[in-house]
Model the fold of this input.
Amino acid sequence: ETGVTQTPRHLVMGMTNKKSLKCEQHLGHNAMYWYKQSAKKPLELMFVYSLEERVENNSVPSRFSPECPNSSHLFLHLHTLQPEDSALYLCASSQETGSGAQYFGPGTRLLVL
Amino acid sequence: LAKTTQPISMDSYEGQEVNITCSHNNIATNDYITWYQQFPSQGPRFIIQGYKTKVTNEVASLFIPADRKSSTLSLPRVSLSDTAVYYCLVRPRAGGYQKVTFGTGTKLQVIP
Done:
């Protein structure tokens, strides 16, 4: 248990669906992240939030829309996804400065049909 | 940003000490070296971090030579449960987290 929770753990959706992934951290951290991990590929950083402001968007398609309503919660809204978007989506948090440790949640395994 | 190079995979027998070396030739003065462990279908887990010389915690040791162009993660007496992918990362001391990349890591297979 890392102090970062993600729901749902598994999700199957069609290409026309709209769904949201939720992440919550109980560590008092100020930075939160979304990563994508596809099969046989390294983790890809998608979004970074610091104190609820987005500080990084690594050229992620607009069909992925993040939301950070407060420093403890992070959402990833999904719409009109493609089958190649099927992957493990990981949320992480860290202290904003001076810390090398990111604490990851268990991930959401997403399958797009 | 410093690029890291690690072996793609390693095998070890149970009870042995495992050393995984990571090269980071263009590490900057303010960069720290961090290692993570990842089991299948789980998020990476922070193992250890260091800046220079040697760091030890209850899980592993990290050896960093004076030139800091490489680092070695040492896992004492591995067990089957240590089978995982191990990532070496280089990141600035403060901030810069958005530029950190995990790479492909080293897949460690512990054999009975």
Summary: The mean pLDDT of chain A is 89.
